[in-house]
Amino acid sequence: MKRIIPLLGLAAVGAGAYWYVQSNTSVSQTPSSTSDGVGDTESSEDFLWLEDVMGEEALKWVRERNTKTLEELTRDPRFDELKEESLKILTSKDKLVYGQIRGDFVYNFWQDADHVKGLWRRTSWESYVANEDKWDVLLDLDALAKKEGKSWVYKGSTCLKPDYDVCMLRLSDGGKDAAYVREFNVASKSFVENGFALPESKSNVDWLDADTLLVSSTFGDNAVTDSGYPRIVRMWKRGQELSATPVVFEGEKTDVSASSTVVHSKDQKHILLSRAPTFYSGVHYLLDGDKKIKLPIPEDGELTGFIADHVLVSLRSDQLGHKKGDLLAMNLEALKAGKAEPQLLFSPSESQALSSVQTSDNYVFVSYLENVQSRVLKLTPVLKGDKVTWNQDVLELPEQGTIGLVSIADDAPRMVISYEDYLTPRSLRSLNPETLESQVIQTVPARFSSDDLESKQMLASSKDGTKVPYFVIHKKGIELDGTNPTLLYGYGGFEISMKPRYSSLTGKLWLEQGGVYVVANIRGGGEFGPRWHQAALKGNRHKAFEDFIGVAEDLIAKKITSPKHLGISGGSNGGLLVGAVFTQRPDLFNGVVCMVPLLDMMRFHKLLAGASWMGEYGNPEDPQMSDYIRSYSPFHVVDKASEYPEVFFITSTKDDRVHPGHARKMAAKMESLGHKVYYYENIEGGHSASANLVQRAEQYAMQYTYLFKKLAN
Question: Which of 307, 438, 462, 511 is close enough to 466 for a disulfide, judged by CB 3.0 to 4.6 Å?
Answer without folding.
Answer: 462
